[in-house]
Amino acid sequence: MAGMVKIHAWTPMDFLLMFLMWAVMMVGMMVPTAVRMTLIYAAGARKAERQGTPLAPPSTFVAGYIAMWTLFSVGATAA
Fold it and tell me: How many angstroms separate the CA atoms of 50 and 33, rounded?
């Protein structure tokens, strides 16, 4: 029993580091898998702009995708 790891309460720095680990991991894994979806959205946005009904730019689409995975990272860290 002496060799067991002692469990301690998380400090704010522990939470921050764990959150950063989750956020970097989720963005690094999930953004590349969304490339095809982003390209399809970009094509649809170009077509909509030609038709006079523009959509949000693809950069906004990607920023929203990253924001959702970052929000997930907060939940994963809190859990």
Answer: 28
pLDDT tens sequence across 15-33: 999 999 999 999 999 999 9
Helix (H) or strand (E) holding 32: helix 12-33
Structure token pair of residue 49: 């702009």
Domain of 65, in residue numbers:
12-78
Q: Is residue 63 part of a domain?
A: yes
Q: Give the count of domains, the chain.
A: 1
Residue 13: C-alpha distances to residues 24, 51, 55, 76 (Å): 16, 50, 40, 16
**Residue 50: inside a domain, yes or no?**
yes
Specify if 43 maps to a domain: yes
Per-residue tokens: 46: 């170009």
Residue 39 in tokens: 């390209």
Predicted pLDDT at 58? 94
